Amino acid sequence: MNKMDLRKKVMYTISTGLLAGTLSLAPMGASSVAEAGGWDIVGSILGTVSQATAESEAVRYEILRWSNSPKNQQSTLDSSISKNGIDTDVEHNERVSRVLNQLIDRGNYAMEPNSLPFRWRVINSDEWNAGCYPTDYIEVNSALVKDLTSDDALAGVLAHEMIHGLHQHMANDAAQQVLYQYGAGLLTMNADYIQATLSNYLTNYVTIKNTSNISEADADESGFYLLASAGFNPGGFPIETCRMAQMDKSNRGILTEIFTGVYDHPASQKRFNQAEQRMEEYGYNHVKVKNGNEVYIDGQYLMTATEGNGLEDWENAYLIAGGISKGIHDYHSAYAWNFGSKDFLNDRAYDTLRDALSNAELAAKFQTMLENAYSLDVTDKEHRNTKVKLKQAEKERNDKIAAHKAEVMAPENAGAYRAHCDSYLDMELNKLAFKEAEKALTADPNSYIQNGNMARAYSALNDDYKEKHDSFNDEYSRKAIEFNEKALNIANSNSINDTYWLYTNMALYQQQAGNYTLSNEAALTAIAMQPDKEKNYRRIGYNSLKLGDREGAIKYYKMCLAHGGNLSSVPEEIVAEVQANSTTIDDIISDNE
Ligand SMILES: [Zn+2]
Fold first, then answer.
1. CB 327 within 8 Å of CB 279
2. Cβ–Cβ contacts within 10 Å for residue 209, how many?
3. What distance in Å separates the CA atoms of residue 173 and residue 234, rounded to the nearest whole number?
4. CA-based torsion, 122, 126, 129, 133: positive or negative
5. Under CATH, what is the fold of the domain 411-592?
């Protein structure tokens, strides 16, 4: 496959929105990529392993490369909006923003350096679904937001989608599909078929399943822990998977079937059961929902949930049970729950549980059951072993994420975050630019480039505030100055070449922030270090014109041309004068000595 063709195909596929990890509502097909597992043995016999691997890796590489561009992210966002239009309901947008930001800010996860920060839109669509593009643009349909009235259930969907992006499922699955296609062909041992499969794969790219069953399972599992780590009620996940299962057959009341485990859509039934089990395990297997709306602790009946707060009885049951699970997970003893104090269940995730316990008699009963649950973890061997096992599994998960976080924030990745920052600044998406500059600086805190970059991001944010509020934001101004100084200090202990780069960058940042005099000062310092580069002369010419210094502008544009600058960079209003008498090298030298 010609590299260019592949590139075009990938671009087309992503930009038209044909490749996105969704909730995968459709019945899961038989062609799981897991079945490609034995293919490497077959392949090695036929001696085409390296070809298949190269092809597969090329597909993965192209999708990741294309997706790692803020401009392409914008194009996936634009094309998604152009299909159905945007949902202008303020409440829908506020909810998605609030829930997604909590997942992003408080959740425990690592993001690959070649992945972009998440962006999202709520789209006008009656289809109950959401999707994450390989560019980390998350499309949420209005029907889904409207239907999932619980924030915790909405968090379940958004956490699932975030995992598709964080784990780069689309690129990995497409690559796996290539291997699978090879494998299927090889099994027939028919050379023509192998050829046909190869050439057809990318031609029919659009028809393949976007994510594999393995990725869907991963998005559910990792999504659950992401949701819980971000402080949401773990009952949100069973609610979301149950609503999704209901959507498979919207005409029928299938709740009873789901809760009794006999729903004739096995994939949906399984996803719900797994979510329910994870919620129970999060609280070390003490709490359980039975018959859809009854809550039990250690096999003892606690209460029956009723409808309320815009939620059905069974939804409230899962939020009550999820709240208990979260509490048992987060508090090391019944005492730590602070019964009777104003701090009791003082977190949004516990709202439904706290409301349910407003009945004093029930609250007393609950407290006794809870104390019993904690003591079982000590006295009962089975409970003790379960808790040790679950805590160990959690530790392993968290250690793995921590190690990965350290890896992605290694100094060598600072450049990747800086590149994102540059693109977002060009697009005037200054908050996203700032976040990426922050990551670059965290990865490489002693680099003058990263410090300078941070200064630039702060300046850009300041410009935003300036435009909106007609005054500089003090905090950002202070920080911009602080980071400028840091960058200068680091540069002072570096080589002339490095310092030249710093001042050149400073000149650019100050120019972008509209500080033309400061930009000129930095540019002159850079010229003193490397007088043969045209760039800084051009910058001073431009700034001078902005400052109303026409003569200065003409002078520096002349010097720019004398150092190999291009006439097309000279503004039309002074081009004749700049061209008239070209500056000589002697002029330039005398200007610097
Ligand atoms: Zn999915």
1. no
2. 18
3. 28
4. negative
5. 1.25.40
Q: What is the largest CA-CA distance in the chain?
A: 95
Integer CA distances (angstroms), 516 to 430, 483, 512, 556, in order: 20, 19, 9, 14
**What does the pLDDT look like over 344-383, one tens digit per residue?**
999 999 999 999 999 999 999 999 999 999 999 999 999 9
Residue with tokens 């719900």: 272
Ligand 1 centroid, distance to 20 Cα (angstroms)? 9
Q: How far is the CA of 216 from the centre of ligand 1 (A)?
A: 5
At residue 589, the pLDDT reads 57
Delimiting residues of CATH 1.25.40.10 domain(s) in the chain: 411-592
Coil, helix or strand at residue 430: helix
Q: Residue for token digits 């096995």?
A: 266
Q: How far is CA 252 from CA 239, 246, 263, 270, in A?
A: 17, 8, 11, 19
21-22 sheet: strands from edge to edge:
21-22, 130-132, 137-141, 119-123
* Spacing, Cα 219 to ligand 1 middle (Å): 6
In this prediction, residue 62 carries a pLDDT of: 80
Burial state string for 384-421 with b = 16 or more CB within 10 A and e = fewer than 16:
eebbeebeeebeeeeeebeeeeeebbeeebbbbbbbbb
Give the pTM.
0.78
Distance, CA of 245 to CA of 410 (rounded, Å): 42
* Sheet of strand 294-297, all strands in order from the earlier edge strand to the far edge: 287-290, 294-297, 300-304
CA–centroid distance, residue 169 to ligand 1 (Å): 9
Ligand 1 center to 442 CA (angstroms): 31
Closest CA to 137 of 114, 118, 164, 109: 118
